[in-house]
Amino acid sequence: xxxxxxxxxxxxxxxxxxxxxxxxxxxxxxxxxxxxxxxxxxxxxxxxxxxxxxxxxxxxxxxxxxxxxxxxxxxxxxxxxxxxxxxxxxxxxxxxxxxxxxxxxxxxxxxxxxxxxxxxxxxxxxxxxxxxxxxxxxxxxxxxxxxxxxxxxxxxxxxxxxxxxxxxxxxxxxxxxxxxxxxxxxxxxxxxxxxxxxxxxxxxxxxxxxxxxxxxxxxxxxxxxxxxxxxxxxxxxxxxxxxxxxxxxxxxxxxxxxxxxxxxxxxxxxxxxxxxxxxxxxxxxxxxxxxxxxxxxxxxxxxxxxxxxxxxxxxxxxxxxxxxxxxxxxxxxxxxxxxxxxxxxxxxxxxxxxxxxxxxxxxxxxxxxxxxxxxxxxxxxxxxxxxxxxxxxxxxxxxxxxxxxxxxxxxxxxxxxxxxxxxxxxxxxxxxxxxxxxxxxxxxxxxxxxxxxxxxxxxxxx
Length: 462
Ligand code: FAD
Ligand code: NAI
What we know:
Catalytic activity: N(6)-[(R)-dihydrolipoyl]-L-lysyl-[protein] + NAD(+) = N(6)-[(R)-lipoyl]-L-lysyl-[protein] + NADH + H(+)
Bound molecules: flavin-adenine dinucleotide, 1,4-dihydronicotinamide adenine dinucleotide
Oligomer: single chain
Binding site for FAD: 51, 115, 139-141, 309, 315-318
Largest sheet: 7 strands, mixed
InterPro entries: Class-I_Pyr_Nuc-Dis_Oxidored, FAD/NAD-bd_sf, FAD/NAD-binding_dom, FAD/NAD-linked_Rdtase_dimer_sf, Lipoamide_DH, Pyr_nuc-diS_OxRdtase, Pyr_nucl-diS_OxRdtase_dimer, Pyr_OxRdtase_I_AS
EC number: 1.8.1.4
Protein name: Dihydrolipoyl dehydrogenase
């Protein structure tokens, strides 16, 4: 047993960042993690492994589709799936070991095992009970399944199973056209699987700007992904190594079936708080199972904080990280701040899709007068040279003040380009501020400037 200023439960991007910041601020800190390795969903079975597979499969796609055009001839590479998985595992290992190193460097104790809170100020791990003046719950989220669909992680898989399939399936059905479905669907489609995405709504990626949704779906279709929209999955039957996906089309209630070798269930995630003992402590939870907090990440129980996927807001690693840093600062008596209006969202397909701030649909609904500056990557020299002309930058600004309200990018390196707009929004900038900033040529970033110019007197290259 030991006494700590802070015990963080969970070592995902929320938890490990909170622990490091607490230690940096001079607090004696421990972090409880039940997994074999640190880093949570993100490093072990989420962001990092999925990006490794997206990177590898994208290289194959480039070799097959663009190398010859640039005069790079020869046999296109074949897929050694075992090696690709081992590359992915190496990447995971490097990242999770990196957190272990950071814990040692910052003198954070890793309490190995599953933690619970038997009473305020105490955290139990195995048979040991530790004392903590403050507890941060950062236990993340788990896959949320559908009624009638049982995940066996073999034939019917969640994202976790999809990151380690024994072989590339011939036919894959993805349930849900959200972020996971489209990223991992893209991976397997590029590797040769016939991928069909079944989506309940009439559009993909709910919550995203409508124009981006349409362009994104068009480009994914061009890449070979098939879509069945407006379809509610009723059940999945597994027959040895095959599966049948039964769905109902919402427009006429007709019932249809799809065969698959592997079914990926990607219909969302839910907070994971099992075994913590929150009910007995009287910690307030929302109807959706999220831990309720105030704007300083305090729960209703003194000394207990919560951050990341376990609380309200977008289930994103960087949102969890920001909350981790801010909660640590609050505990250390400083000011912790997260600007929820400027949290970017990125989908790491090819092209990438990125957004920040308000969508055009949200502005319309709010009755806000706005202007749109749009610029196609077809007018960007660098993008044309790199076969990356598909897509556009769309900037939304207040009609009167020109203040930037949102940005939506589909195109090369969109996930990096978006940060220029994030910084601008943090400074309360106007579109004109971006338009007046000199951008190096030839870069993809020039497309952002051109979209800003389009909010004023007009872009140059269109
Ligand atoms: P988590 O990362 O879920 O970590 C929680 C940790 O707490 C886990 O390790 C768990 O074992 C541990 N834990 C839980 N209960 C206990 C307990 N009682 N005792 C001890 N330990 C416990 N987000 C992005 O921003 N970008 C991406 O590219 C991205 N890609 C993703 C891809 C996939 C396939 C998935 C599934 C998610 C992805 N996400 C991505 C989402 C991202 O992973 C999460 O938003 C993020 O991990 C949340 O961080 P967290 O710290 O709240 O929780
Ligand atoms: P999601 O919420 O993004 O998408 C789920 C999709 O499934 C929605 O389009 C929904 O309409 C659909 N759906 C729900 N029920 C259905 C049914 N019965 N039949 C057909 N379709 C149905 O959830 P997803 O993709 O599982 O991702 C979970 C979380 O992980 C997200 O919140 C996301 O933020 C995070 N994540 C982030 C990534 C990133 O930032 N690049 C990558 C992967 C995940």
